Amino acid sequence: METALKKLALAAAVCVLFALEVPVQAQQFDVAFGLGTVSSSSASSASGDHTAQSVGGGVYPAFSGDFLIRHNFGAEGEIAWRAGQADYLGVQPYRPLFYDFNAIWVPRLGKYAAAELLAGIGAESIRFYNPFFQCTGFGCTNYTSSTHFMGDFGGGVRLYAHGHFFVRPEFRVYLIHNNVEFSSGHAVRYGASIGYTFGGPL
Fold first, then answer.
1. Which domain CATH number covers 116?
2. Which of 29, 80, 148, 156 lies 20 to 30 Å from 188 when distance is taken between CA atoms?
């Protein structure tokens, strides 16, 4: 998770530097925190090149943030992870984590609502937990990771309930390359977030 957070922070820093090049009145920055779950093929539907283990189920907290730079277009990043560990094939605890970086379009739907449409790339990182710690010169961990490149797309609707605060029902579709640890290379995360808009027309 530490590596994923560092990558997300780096992407956010790049977005900040880029946003500083445009006029202040054109900027909008949004942050949100939410909860959801992941749905995927059942373990019984696994084919010959996938393991009989579904990535679906569990509660997934998620953080997201975006910069809208021009004409409601911008850049967005997010990270979501399974809150609790699950049993992999009944023998080893594991936790999936998804992070992605997207282009985003946020058209207004009136004074108190806006849509979100986004697409981009990222990765699924699976933490397999061990009953012991492994140490290197950079620290100690009790897990090994398996990371897979993925594409993603999704959307949501921001409903501004009070001032710049919004509630956002949302979904993400993950297309995961070579996701052999699970029953499918496709997964859907859906849920809702609470967020705040800095700047913008409200």
1. 2.40.160.20
2. 29
